[in-house]
Amino acid sequence: MADLEETPVDLVIHARRVFEGAVSDPQRFGPVAADLVRLARRAGPPEALAVALRAVAWAQRAQFNAAEAKRLLDEAAAVARRHRLSATLAEVLMTRSSVKQELGNITGARRDLDLASPLVSGPRGVELIFQRAVLDQNVGLLAPAADAYRVVLAAPTTGRFLVAAGNNLALIEAQHGRYADALRLLDQAGRIAPRVGPSQVATVLQSRAWVTVHAGRLTEGLRLFEQATQAHEAAGLPLGELYVEYADALMDLRLIPEAASAARSAADEFRISGVPLMGAEAQLRVAQLALLSGDAGDAETAAGAAAQTFRRQRRPTWTARATLVRAEARLRAGAATADDLRQARRVCRRLEAQRTWSYAVDAYSITGRIAALLGRERDAVSALRHAADLARRLPVLVRMRGSVAAAMAASLTADDGAVLAHCRRGLNDLSRHRTALPSVELRALASGHGAELGQLALGVVVRNGSAMQALSWMERTRAAALLAVEPPGGVDPEDLEKLRGIHAELETVASAERVVGTPDPVSARLKSLEDRIRRSSWRRRSPDRAVDTTLRPAQLRDRLGSRVLVEYAVLGGTLIAVVVERRRSRLVTLGPASAVLDRMRTLFFALRRMTQSLPESSLAAARLSADSRLAALRGLLFDPLGLPGGAELVVVPVGHLHGIPWSALWDAPVSLAPSAGMWARTRAAAGSRPGGGPVVLVEGPNLPGASDEVRRLRGLYPDAAALVPPHSTAAEVLRRLDGADLVHLACHGWLRADNPLFSSLVLSDGPLTVQELQTSGAAPHRLVLASCQSGADVAYAGNEVVGFISSLLARGTAGVVASVAAVPDVAAVDLMHALHEQLSQGRTLAHGLHAARERIDRTSPAAYVNWCTFSAYGAA
Q1: Long-range contacts: 558-561, Cβ < 8 Å, 24+?
Q2: Which CATH number is associated with domain 664-874?
Q3: Which of 105, 496, 597, 873 has its CA 20 to 30 A from that of 203?
Q4: What gap in Å lies between CA 94 and CA 109, rounded to an integer?
Q5: Residues of the chain with CATH 3.40.50.1460
Q6: Which domain of life is it from (predicted)?
Q7: Distance of CA 468 to the CA centre of its chain
Q8: pTM of the prediction?
Q9: Which among 433, 469, 538, 479 is positioned nearest to 771, based on CA atoms?
Q10: What is the pLDDT of residue 76?
């Protein structure tokens, strides 16, 4: 605090130093400035009071208290006018201009700069140029803003403006697609920022993260956002603006729930703080995320509200972007009109004129789609081709959107060869992008970027009737995320142990279910820890190697032998299948996929009832319902294929059809796989394994049937290693899994549909998750999972699945037996014993399970459920 004996001149000098401090470190200097205001009101000269008020206002502005900042600046301006302090008034007006922008008053902000202009002289002219550039940037006039920032950077000026001008110019360069130039500017600003203050350090880190993401380096961008978050917290800055830009990164990674949470947090923070400038930008992200979530109605409403706000703020470029999102929402809902097309065309012209190429690509693509919907084919082709041309040299995700546009244009002109060429190019880009991602979760999500390309190409080959071409394109967009296996490690083992500790606090099955339900404190801690484990997996090194998904027909037939492959796909809502036999292949159209899903849902409702304590009449009704649904599924999925009776099948489902109990639909051995290519890999692994490795039997806790199961299996495998509670811990099971020939796990299983990486098998010390299994790299040759829902991998867009089965097969396990539903514990013992009797005689899992199922007494409801829901995966 200033000394009361300071002279008026000293107090003014001190006030100016405090203002510079408030700019660099508002958390530290805000209280100092407030004390100085009190002193200046009592004893100081007017200039000191005006400058001190400006300092407090800046600190309030940094906390998004824009209304309070404006009130303080209004007072400072009045003091400066009353005492004819022209230079000080100019400074206050320039700061107030920034605050008015944040309040959405663009006209008032421009007026303040115009009022300040005749009062500015000397070095302060640089600040006026800078503030006009900020105003232009916020309304979307990027070219004049960039020119002004270059003037500031060339002028002999202070570090504060060098950092801010370099940072803001970098953001414009990135929007123009010049990412190397943007990062060079941020390097320069980053070297100066620590000398200026922590708020500048945080700002530059945030910008570097955003630019890095838009340059296509997504996981590096995520790491930088974490650093930026820490820098903001250290500087005492609110996180609203960072959340907005973080949402962009999460959107590109298709982490939609996380992106939506970040965008909503930002929108709430700006609404509460009264900062409509950034609030409207956050609202636009909310609209985009509603669109990505499939809620076109909410997207249209949110985008329309954002557009109205931008219009009031006189920000035409931002209005154009919001108008585009609204038009896309109406397109998705099938409600786009000629007026939407006219508006979209105007948006195209504005965004291209601004040279914001990524946004322009989207604008032309959406315009083309609307024109196609309205039957204006020539206009559609022109817009879509222009989108593809603009995207050609942009980052990979934008190039993929350009490939979609080009393929759609070719489809409209019936150029099938061009459709396939553009789809191939886009999927090759996707393959390179996906390979650079460090975790199965991110790679599986990334495959969603290629879903439309896969559909366009599949439509061509199905129309032309080529079964093997159709199979080839199905395989291009199937389970590709699993093939690039990351090395073990990358997750802190202590976090995994903490995860088990928290699960121990959940004590009962009922409380364990609260993990994804009731927001109690233990569940909140668990979610926080799971988020940390996920983020750590995003930071590890990627496999960074190309993955060949090519499946050669001769090689596939050789590995199939006498088996018949049936691979399913969904094309425009219609289920199709490719059937590959020894000497021929066929392409069969089956009908609406929705009919299959409807019967699948009612089947599982009946099976759940059969696991409950119900009257005999209710159980009998459930059994009749289950039999009826199985017959219906058989009629929809197998009967139209003309399969040879008794043939051993290899079935590759699609999407939610992975959850169907396929073994119950066919009276012969059936093996499943996420893709034909992955099944062929397991066949090669099964054939090359010499055998003779250890057998491991694992009993989980609190399952009476598991004890009996392991005891009986020890009679079949007298040399087996048996792990029983309390020794059947996650660490010990993982140690025994790796290199084992056959492992049997009898334990509880928990499916996490919200995040399959945390689906788990319950062992003596807590859950063994899919995440931990991947982290360990453990992969036995064959594995029997006698646990609930352990075979229920979760489907992602782009025909990916994630769960225990897919993770094990990707890491080299050649065969797994698991259930897609909850299974009665005690009733499973007979089935498991019968299965292992077959395995001990050298049979494969598919043959062994088929023979074991034949011996089950299906008159018992519990035995029927086990007969129905267990399936074999892979070829071993």
Answers
A1: 559/680, 559/683, 559/684, 559/875, 560/650
A2: 3.40.50.1460
A3: 105
A4: 8
A5: 664-874
A6: Bacteria
A7: 32
A8: 0.88
A9: 538
A10: 96
Rounded distance, CA 568 to CA 504, Å? 41
Give the C-alpha distances (Å, rounded to integers) separating 280 from 261, 276, 302: 16, 6, 10
How many CA atoms lie less than 13 Å away from 634 in the CB half-sphere?
Answer: 12
Work out the angle at residue 648's Cα, subtended by the Cα atoms of residues 646 and 649, and round it to the nearest 5 degrees.
120
| Lookup result for tokens 């300071």 | 6
The pLDDT score that the predictor gives to residue 1 is 44
Percent residues over pLDDT 90 in the chain: 75
**Both tokens assigned to 726:** 């309390």
Is a pLDDT exceeding 50 seen at residue 422? yes
Classified as helix, coil or strand, 872 is strand
Cβ atoms of residues 540 and 439 within 8 Å: yes
Going 870 to 872 to 873 to 876, the CA torsion angle's sign is positive
Phi-psi category of 196—alpha, beta or left, where left has phi over 0 and alpha has psi -120 to 50? Answer: alpha
Residue 204 has pLDDT above 80, yes or no: yes
Single-letter amino acid code for the residue at 821:
A
Whole-angstrom Cα Rg for the chain: 32
Contact 229, 249 (CB under 8 A): no
Which range scores top for mean pLDDT: 23-32, 478-487, 820-829?
23-32
Residue indicated by tokens 């090519």:
550
Residue with tokens 């609203």: 240
How far out from the chain centre does Cα 715 lie?
47
In angstroms, the CA 695 to CA 255 distance is 40
pLDDT single digits (tens) 588-621: 999 999 999 999 999 999 999 999 999 999 999 9
Residue 727 pLDDT grade (very low, low, confident, very high; cuts 50, 70, 90)? very high
Is the pLDDT reported for residue 312 higher than 60? Answer: yes
Distance in angstroms (rounded) separating the CA atoms of residues 114 and 20? 24
CB 365 within 8 A of CB 345: no
**DSSP H or E stretch at residue 240:** helix 240-252
